[in-house]
Design a protein that fits this description.
By secondary structure, this protein is mainly α. The protein is built from ten helices and no strands. The chain has one domain. This is Protein gufA.
């Protein structure tokens, strides 16, 4: 019971780091077209690095730790990534997104749809991260659980900033952007509770969940984020953002293990 509580609190703390990352939107920042291009690219870079270092690599390691061969682990990751991509494609086609457009002025439907798919991908990716935190604490492995929770929390800071900036750029209020950012982070304690409470089941689904989230994020990066960051002649700004986002997230993942 103690490990369940600690796991839930740790994953909640990691999830709340998204809101900490979003706080700069309260500052009087002028989001010019160039800054928006860089930040959108930054979001794509963060997601790309998280796909590789936070999801695919640890997902493969988790599958091998379960007794899978390297080839079987690779097949699990491939299948999960493809399923995640298919899921986002279906969401792209059938998501009832009209609700998000109502009452918004000077904003295109396609742009809002991109932003909400981006937020959906971040939210999906937060679940297996919470699961990983919960599994560590559920195994009574607090020595490993605390660094995992801390590392994931620090990774969530730039993700929270990108989510919030994306919403503010689409004329949403700062308060609304903070609220949505909080909701994306609150998916983590749900995963944490499941991971800590049902360790054996969570251990089994962890590689699949990580690969699924990686596929969802790859879909959004390729289909929406990078093309959008290159619109209106902002190719260089978008590319600079992708590079910066990738190296920031890569540093956090490698430095924090």
């Amino acid at each position: 019971m103690e490990s369940l509580v600690i796991g839930a609190i740790a994953s909640l703390g990691a999830g709340l780091a998204t809101v900490i990352g979003a706080l700069p939107i309260l500052l009087p920042i002028n989001l010019t077209q160039r800054i928006q291009g860089i930040m959108l690219g930054f979001g794509g870079g963060v997601m790309l690095a998280a796909t590789s270092f936070s999801l695919i690599v640890p997902g493969t390691e988790a599958a091998v730790a379960q007794g899978q061969s390297q080839a079987s682990a690779a097949l699990i990751i491939v299948a999960g990534v493809l399923l995640g991509g298919v899921f986002l494609q279906l969401a792209h086609r059938f998501m009832p997104h009209e609700h998000f457009f109502k009452g918004k002025e000077n904003v295109t439907h396609n742009n809002l749809k991109r932003i909400w798919l981006f937020i959906a991908a971040i939210t999906i990716h937060n679940f297996p991260e919470g699961l990983a935190v919960g599994v560590n604490f559920g195994n009574n492995n607090i020595a490993d659980g605390i660094p995992v929770a801390l590392g994931i929390g620090l990774q969530n800071i730039p993700e929270g900033l990108v989510v919030a900036l994306s919403l503010v750029a689409e004329k949403y209020s700062a308060g609304y952007a903070l609220w949505i950012t909080l909701l994306t982070g609150l998916v983590e304690p749900i995963g944490g509770l499941i991971g800590a409470g049902v360790v054996s089941i969570a251990n089994f689904i962890l590689p699949w969940a990580m690969a699924f989230a990686a596929g969802a994020m790859l879909f959004v990066i390729s289909d929406e984020i990078i093309p959008e960051s290159h619109r209106k002649g902002l190719e260089k700004e978008g590319t600079i953002g992708v590079m910066l986002g990738f190296v920031v997230m890569m540093f956090l993942d490698i430095a924090l293990g």
